UniProtKB/TrEMBL annotation:
Gene3D superfamilies recorded: Vaccinia Virus protein VP39
Protein name from the UniProt record: Class I SAM-dependent methyltransferase
BP term (GO), one: methylation
Signal sequence annotation: none
Domain annotation Methyltransferase: ranges: 60-150
Pfam families, A to Z: Methyltransf_25 (PF13649)
Domain of life: Bacteria
Organism encoding this protein: Streptomyces bauhiniae
InterPro entries with a match to the protein in the record: Methyltransf_25, SAM-dependent_MTases_sf
Source lineage: Bacteria, Bacillati, Actinomycetota, Actinomycetes, Kitasatosporales
CDD domains hit by this protein: AdoMet_MTases
Keywords recorded for this protein, A-Z: Methyltransferase, S-adenosyl-L-methionine, Transferase
GO MF annotations, alphabetized: methyltransferase activity
């Protein structure tokens, strides 16, 4: 996709007609050569923003994929770094790229096998795979995995304006996915416009977190003066 080393149109079509788990197993060998991989600029901005509130002891990358975010944790956590994902294919790619020293666990984020194990949980670009009704359970799982005082942090980008081509592209993508899931099984959950910051903040607070929003200045401001990107930091009491 967008490069000779990326997946072909046929490979993307096969992925899109699979389940989320199977789709990512298929995409894993070429995932890091697609636009879906979290950009280094985002990873660096999050690491810089979290640096002043660290260091942390133990960190978890939620829905770690091929491991891009694990490097952020490695620079912030003094004792251990863990990645969790439900795609065996993505974890295998992460394992080959990271080597020893990082624990990789295959598990569903909605049923985490951890209790009070981490001081920091991060996640990058995974929330489109969760329906709005699944967020309370997901956030409760993260809350339980954190120690008291631990933080759950993730970046969010400001949604594009209706006047921009990006707005209509994402709207069209979500519409196509809804039609696909209405007529084909198993479903492939990936909606770019379902993760709304106001609703997310409310669900985090209901799960027992205190929520802070921090601008990521590396990405500048929109025309109305609001940040183009923010770091959401949810602190367990």
């Amino acid at each position: 996709m967008f490069s000779p080393e990326g997946p072909t149109v046929r490979e993307l079509a096969v992925q899109a007609l699979s389940s989320v788990e199977r789709g990512y197993d298929l995409l894993a060998p070429k995932f890091d050569r697609t636009p879906f991989r979290t950009p280094v600029s985002v990873l660096d901005a999050v690491a810089k923003a979290l640096g002043p509130v660290g260091p942390f002891e133990d960190g978890l990358d939620l829905c770690c994929g091929t491991g891009a975010g694990l490097a952020v944790l490695g620079g912030l956590c003094r004792r251990s770094v863990t990645g969790v994902d439900f795609s065996a294919g993505m974890l295998e790619v992460a394992r080959r790229g990271l080597g020893e020293g990082v624990a990789l666990v295959r598990a569903d984020a909605r049923a985490l096998p951890f209790t009070g194990a981490f001081d920091l949980v991060v996640s990058f670009g995974a929330f489109g795979h969760f329906l709005p009704r699944e967020l309370p359970g997901l956030f409760s799982q993260v809350h339980a995995a954190l120690r008291p005082g631990g933080r759950f942090a993730f970046p969010v980008l400001a949604p594009p304006r209706p006047s921009s081509p990006a707005y209509w592209m994402l709207l069209g993508f979500d519409a196509v996915m809804r039609v696909r899931n209405a007529v084909w099984r198993p479903p492939f959950v990936m909606y770019y416009r379902a993760f709304r910051l106001g609703a997310v903040r409310r669900e985090l607070e209901l799960a027992g977190f205190t929520v802070e929003l921090q601008p990521l200045p590396e990405f500048g401001l929109r025309a109305d003066g609001s940040p183009r990107a923010r770091l959401v930091t949810a602190r367990r009491g």
